[in-house]
Amino acid sequence: MSIPELTISTTDFDRLETLLDSLPEDTVGVDTLSKELDRANIVEPQELAANIVSMNSTVRFSWGNGKSSSLTLVYPKDIDKSGTTISVLAPVGSALLGLKTGDTINWPLPNGDMSTITIDEVIYQPEREGIYHR
Fold it and tell me: What's 18's DSSP letter?
């Protein structure tokens, strides 16, 4: 399975770079997110396709075992206890960023196992709603 292409808006890219620069290098998730940003295609927010997972998007995705989840991808400071948000620094969070509907990626889980994650639907995307500078 090839690694799917990533597309990220300039707004998300700049904010994520600032976040990474503010954290110690040994913070969990920093290295993984940094590698994902390095391989991303960067576009203006207005040019981001409506089916791409951006920051603050709500996405429905399936695991390799057939289980489905719906989560909102957020910055670490925006995690809440509702169970409906996931940090971009979490392993699955950094896997979701920049993927589009239909993409599948093999991704390491916190326990060391590998899983496939498939994007089923981008339920909500700020850019699709005309919200470019959230």
Answer: H
Contacts for 127 with CB less than 8 Å, ≥ 6 apart: 9, 45, 46, 48, 50, 54
- Estimate the share of the chain in helix, then strand, then coil, as percent rounded to the nearest 5: 30, 30, 45
Distance CA 12, CA 42 (A): 9
3-state secondary structure of 24: coil
8 Å CB contact between 119 and 53: yes
| CA 76 – CA 73 distance, rounded (Å) | 9
The pTM for the full model equals: 0.92
- Tens of pLDDT, residues 4-36: 999 999 999 999 999 999 998 888 889 989 999
CB atoms within 10 A of CB 116: 14
